[in-house]
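Question: does this match?
>
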Amino acid sequence: MEILVFRHVPFEHLGLIARALENHGLRYRYVEWFADPEAPAPWQEAAGLIFMGGPMSANDDLPWLRQELRLIEAACQAGKPVLGVCLGAQLIAKAAGARVYPNAVKEIGWAPVYWTEAASTDALFRGLRQPETVFHWHGETFDLPAGAVWLAYTENCRHQAFRLGDSVWGIQFHLEVTPEMIADWCSEADNRADIASLPALPDPYANAKRLEELSALVFGRWAALVKTGLPA
């Protein structure tokens, strides 16, 4: 069983998600339409789809982003297992007809995320501590798509996670990052403006151990759903 992973820049890769997929015997392949819009992406044959983050906006008028939005809409309507992280979550929201727009503040670094009542019975997020400290890096947010279940929020951003139906999840925060990824993001030219807005660089190791545990649990549950088609 293969997962198609839509990457938008080379440095925003699966990270800890890869470990969860491998632990459940799932293969994965990157699709990079930003580099090659003609790259094959047979989503109907894939076991699931993952849409990663990136420094661009879901509202950018880029042909390959428009192409991706059309694919997301079709995959969601077909009931395909879909997971979106940060920009990926924003793209899912936009493909489902919701608005994506600048958040009141940029959220960059470690901060607590709080779970809604609906999260207590969600297949991915049930049973987590209230709150959990996770890693954030985003300047935009989104309205909830029609019919979506609201799952998480922070003090500065109301919509941090949602579910559409039983097979589509959008997650604004980053459970997938390793300390090495955080350090790399801080050095990337594409992130220079974000870094300039910070009083200090985030400590890559501040909550890395717990984030690794959360990643194994949440993404492990998603991988199990993909593999079995049943609640994890």
User: Anything to note?
Assistant: Helices lie at 16-23, 63-77, 87-95, 179-187, 192-196, 208-228. The domain at 2-228 is CATH 3.40.50.880 (Rossmann fold). The first strand starts at residue 2 and ends at 6. Residues 129 and 182 are 23 Å apart (CA to CA).
